[in-house]
Here is the input.
Amino acid sequence: MESLKFRSISILEDFWSWLWQSCTAKNNLALILGLTISWYVWKFKNYSRKNTSPLPPGPRGLPVVGSLPFLNPELHSYFTSLAQTYGPILTLRLGRKFCVVVSSPAVAQEVLKDHDIIFANRDVPDLSKAMEYGGHDIVFTSYGPEWRMLRKVCVREMLGSTTLDDVYALRRREIRKTIKYLHSQSRSPVNVGEQMFLTVLNVIINMLWGGSVQGNERVSLGAEFRQVVGEVTELLGMPNVSDFFPELAWLDLQGIRKNMRQLSMRFDQIFDSIIEQRLRMDKEAVRKDFLQVLLQLKNEGDSKTPLTMIHIKALLMDMLVGGTDTTSNSVEFAMAEMMNKPGVMEKAQQELDRVVGKHDTVEESHIHKLPYLYAVMKEVLRLHPVLPLMVPHSPSDSCIVGSYTIPKGSRVFVNVWAIHRDPTIWENPMDFNPERFLDSKWDYSGSDFRYFPFGSGRRICAGIAMAERMVMLCLASLLHSFNWKLPEGENLDLSEKFGIVLKKRIPLIAIPLQRLSNSELYQ
Here is the structure.
């Protein structure tokens, strides 16, 4: 490329010298100067076209703002409609940000497998920088030693199978509390998603610092976290002008950074209080929880990649924000889909009766004997993937994908929602049909790019095992313990609300009816 540049300059200088000697009139000089520049630009661009792959196709947009004015808030369905026009890989210019949308298994495989290392980084949103520990968590940390250290700590100390087996009693206790509460509300409407959120939140809090907070303080802390987590996920799903025009970020035109900073302070106050209590406690007097392990790792130190207090807070936030809404929303969608198809709910309950019986309670040891209920969960994750566009990737270098150039630093969305509903891949894709997953070939490994609800590659979700256990145990317990019906005169709504986490637009309000003859099983 450099030699071409020097040859072109040399040719231009010789040509210019000849023109200067040939011209006597100023107007001729101006004309020839214009022709010369045009010739040089055409020559250079012609070479570039021959030797560089083009950018992916996409809407032209407007000057300066690009396609920002045309964005539909329901980004997952909006991107899907654009893909029908521009193909499985397309570009959008949003202000100064170059965005790429991937909507097919073949292109997703190129991004997440073939060029995994290049696309292993994140395009860190501006609002993350408003948090003291933003950008130091598993989600947004750049791929490298720091991220590998965080993921290793998280998986080894909290989300590995051995650890999850050790804390099964926590999951069981919280789910039995929820079943007891629902039994007390028998024949009264309850908010299914809200109850599942509180259940999962209490499980995670117990795993994080269960020995540090007790009694009424734990109840009030759960309520506060539910509010804060909801506000954080809502902010994360909002388009932010500061991301599209970085030079305007200091103005915080939408007030998003200000709101996130306030939420960060609330997180910080809670974390500081919990950490202070943990440091004062006798380490031998309580069960070893995740926070205690993290503080011990911090004190032991690692000269190459040390675990800091900022890392500890970031990991606590990841667990709370990433593990609550995601799990509870999946359970809520599953219950809504089964209520919409009573035959599916009946099959799941019949399976539970065969495996568990009507004179016992559901245990986690039962769930691997429930293939139909597993199929229900997999179908829910197909039709309503937790992260419809995944967490956006960002290439560390320009890369060729699908014969197109993806520029370095682009924001790359993988539209798993569109892939999971592609009629060329799935028969009757809009139909909720668990039977399609009775074939055991479908899993969460991310190796099949027709179905990868938890992502793929280096940035695949670290909490798959935890999510699987929680969703299955919650669903099995709800279906085994109760029959469910809608309040009189209510219609079931299955519509979605887009966000970084996909939610049910209208919460599921349903009435639990005692299903087991022995009321003591609900205690």
